[in-house]
Specification:
Length: 336
Amino acid sequence: MASKSETAIPVVFGAMTIGSPTISGLKVTTVEDVNNMLDLFQFRGHNEIDTARLYGGGTTETYLADAKWEERGIVMGTKLYPNSKTSGATGPLSYTLRAGDVRRGLLDSLKALNTNKIDLWYLHGPDRETPLEETLSEVNKLHEEGHFNRFGISNFMSWEVAKIWELCDRNGWIKPTVYQGAYNALHRGVELELIPCLRHYNIALYEFQPLAAGFLTSRQRRNDFQEGSRFDSKHALSAMYRSRYGSDVAFDALEIIQSAATKHGLSVAECAFRWLSHHSALNKEQGDKIIIGASSLKQLEENLDDLEKGPLPEDVVKAMEEAWLAYKAVVPKYFH
């Protein structure tokens, strides 16, 4: 029997680590392991999954289907990224945000997930070569056809969020109610402008990268990144993660947190999760949620344990603020 969630902010399971073992960087590569993780996640009182069409080279959604997510009563969200514009991708996993690709992308996801409808569907990033009117009109048609309940956006600039909402409102189209964005104790670039924009339009923030892609775990060392991590040069996205969190400034900020955490016998990861839960701009009443991933059952359990703990000691909160001020000058942009 599932227990009641004990976290201050609701938690979503991020499925980015799930998929075929033939895809580099994936950690959860059997349906048995997926089922074990979903069993634990649901037992701890959580019931929402976040995935994307491109995760696992298209295999993540298929693995979730094989784990019978719908029979479990899980709330499913997936995303469509216009990768043909950003990376020159070609083939069946290549998408723009033109009307035809928007439709194909959602229907491809539904087929992979073995369902006719999901709860939440996102535009995973902007395609600035396609008029928003064309994209959003097709999104609305797909919603009216009954393929999804809620509409979300991710990785857009704050002014684009406002434009999207206003266009949808003016035309009577479904409006976005969720924004998915990077936010953690170091990456706080969303606080100044994006979060006030989201509050104005009553859009919830689903936060991702709570541990800064594993940087806020003390596993990384200056010029010596952990093998098998997202910072490993063999990982497809290592260049992006190193540019975000691999600088000397980032390590200086990390050491500020480490020093304060050590005095209380805390891990950096625990501090990062507890900061998000109790000291960040996230607000349960606004519908905000924390997206967590995991490479193993043990890691998932540890992450959930940390998220159920209370506020941090005052001096640790102060150190987290000092770390942010040290990192602030080089904080990466929150949008694509």
